[in-house]
What we know:
It is a single chain. It is built from 20 helices and 9 strands. The protein is an alpha/beta fold. It has 2 domains: about 15-45 and about 155-460, Metal-dependent hydrolases (TIM Barrel), CATH 3.20.20; about 50-145, uronate isomerase, domain 2, chain A (Orthogonal Bundle). Helix 18 (about 385-400) packs across helix 19. The longest helix has 22 residues, at about 270-295.
Amino acid sequence: MLIHPDRLFSSEPTQRKIARRLFEEIRTLPIVSPHGHTEAAWFASNRPFPDAAQLFVQPDHYIFRMLYSQGVSLEDLEIGQPAPKNPRKIWRIFARHYYLFRGTPTRMWLDYAFQELFGMQDRLSEGNADFYFDSITEKLHTPEFLPRALYDRFGLEVLATTDSPLDSLADHKAIGESNWKARIIPTFRPDPLVDPDFQGFSANLKNLAELTGEDTSTWQGYLSALRSARKRFRELGCTATDHGHPTARTADLSETEAAKLFRRVVAGTTDAEETELFRAQMLMEMARMSLEDGLVMQIHPGSFRNHDRQLFERYGRDMGADIPRPTNYVDALRPLLDRFGNERDLTIILFTLDESTYSRELAPLAGHYPCLRLGPPWWFHDSPEGMMRYRERVTETAGFYNTAGFNDDTRAFLGIPGRHDMARRMDCCFLAKLVAEHRLDEDEALEVARDLTYNLVKKAYRL
């Protein structure tokens, strides 16, 4: 077998037995995936995924960034090509370098999919690369491996995509108008319209004006256009927004000050400080709108995005060159929390790439303000070690119930079950230790396990 039935459980016998019992009770609970980057088009068309390389390698920056770091060129992987000319070659390159993923969560996610979905028993290598490629590609063209069939097979209850306000959402509409009863919903990601540094920002404002009929050259018209876009998303089931700002900074400008700043943004005359101030004000405006329309607000700060300038200029965004940086929350969020922190009808889910903030800033903030919840370990820390560090540093101050369950945040659709399996096992591992140390009774641990797996995420995201 590629994966061991006791993987991730403690090597200490008492804790391992408790973790087994807890996990068995939650193992088959439905998967709720409230934040990710899969594509609604897959389910609207329900066409087969083309081949193993296009399914596993090309869309997943966890994979190709590792290969790139070891000298594999993105040209050889045909990254950015909508229809690669030689997918078998891409797969062979991947297989030849599979050893690079030893000890990483990516390896566990992949082995889970290879064994549980495709029945593989031998580890992927250069020697069996063609067997893997042919076996996976053949199965992908059977009815059982069509996107909708896999959605049902995975036990998904809700799957959220991440979408620009400029997206037509035609694929979401097509899913809703079909006879298929799955719940696939959009998430409102306004970065292209609230970040003046975003590529094409000026053109994006004009496109928003065309979509909404509002005058986005004025401050009030701009805000009205964003409200209109949010309404369109909500009509298609959206329950959350998502904000990928460089920092967590917020601001509370007067209407006059905000309008003056916006005029400078539209004119393209802001400096770096004013651009950051505008992003900070827009987090305040998004929170205000969330209090009005009920959308849950997610803030994902702290990434220096597209750090590799050459790669960005050649391939565009999201090529695996995003790097974590230190992030301040206590001071940065103060203006927003002064205004909305005690609102019980507002939910703001905070994420971090700066683990030093867990016990120093985030847990104390979420352990006090009614509007705040802590998102799960994210991106670089979506790993067994990252999950354990999170529980150890957050629980003592924020408890379990000021956290928001788990989300997989993935572009790799077939990686979803493996990611949730890992999170469930790590939560059971942590809870088993508390039970073994007589800090929690096992019946309480089981209730917490169910909540962390299913109930908290539905409550936090209003699903």
